[in-house]
Fold each of these.
Amino acid sequence: DIVMTQSPDSLAVSLGERATINCKSSQSVLYPSNNKNYLAWYQQKPGQPPNLLIYWASTRESGVPDRFSGSGSGTDFTLTISSLQAEDVAVYYCQQHYQTPPTFGQGTKVEIK
Amino acid sequence: QLQLQESGPGLVKPSETLSLTCTVSAGSISTSTYYWGWIRQPPGKGLEWIGSIYYSGSTYYTPSLKSRVTISVDTSKNQFSLKLTSVTAADTAVYYCARHVGAASGRTDCWGQGTLITVSS
């Protein structure tokens, strides 16, 4: 299985400031035939299911605010929230959807400083 | 808008079989683009993919649970189901049904609300 490792485990950011979450995969999730990275990001608020934010490492899901962006390739990826809002308090997970079984990072908890 | 809803008993005794059904509404399960899966989350912990199924009946399971898991589909009822045998306390979790895009392991673009299953005597 591909192991996904996120850092940090938690971070506290002031409202309006930037939040950055890193994700590293144990092997490349770049599919050479289409040059797409099979890496997704999800947001999970308490008592709710996860919500897809980003797929193919940098493609925003429909309806996701543009303050959320994804970057990276191969084994190293980043989720950036450009200007943290109160409603962004949540746990964020990366996931590789390159091969079965799809695997998730351990999660990063984002709070307001 | 597509909706997924899990149903099943919330309490299962150790060594027994956990059975859940997911009903898909406002959309057809018999769609070539999607696979239908189960993901679980132990209380306070991370996410674990259990497996998925195509409407034709092709199944894919995570290796660690493969010997205990069966996922099936009933296209006439627009439902798919999960059975997990010989459960232990370690199987206590919120179980989500979900839709995967394009592949058995595809990104998950739609989730049910989740149902807490507790394994206890």
Amino acid sequence: GQNIDQPTEMTATEGAIVQINCTYQTSGFNGLFWYQQHAGEAPTFLSYNVLDGLEEKGRFSSFLSRSKGYSYLLLKELQMKDSASYLCAVRGRNTNAGKSTFGDGTTLTVKP
Amino acid sequence: NAGVTQTPKFRVLKTGQSMTLLCAQDMNHEYMYWYRQDPGMGLRLIHYSVGEGTTAKGEVPDGYNVSRLKKQNFLLGLESAAPSQTSVYFCASSYEAGRGYTFGSGTRLTVV
């Protein structure tokens, strides 16, 4: 099985930097995804890490440490529109199916 | 390019009624998935398909059936709806196992 933990809620200030952590325990590992989900909308893909290290995409970066079962999503220069839920998802064994197991999500509130 | 389209967007069912949720994608994706999302919880996999004519059970398959007769369509059926099936249902697709998902806009189902 797979167990994924993320903080339930976080609050940050517009213009600041926030780091959302995700820890996982899986029977096998073949990649970690981050998705953004605004209230009442569908999730949208943000990033994918399969090797250790940092992946940067504009204001968003994602880091992975496979030995520690740990990832984080870093959001820089926060904007009000970044208020959303951020979902960590892990792809485990039997990966031919591309199945992902999702954490419960972290609700980020950005305040002026 | 429509991406992933789900119909209907909203539905209210009485206990015991049946219905089919339709998911259609125009991206020629091999992999398709049905997830449900309940308040404060992550997405849970119901069923998935790795190609036309194939289906498999996910984490929470009981009470649901699926079919993938054509590559672009993935149908989710509820034969006898129960209040516990009240949820938001998301369909997703991906080109290959290592890619992020593209989600449909969701179907909000209430069973009374």
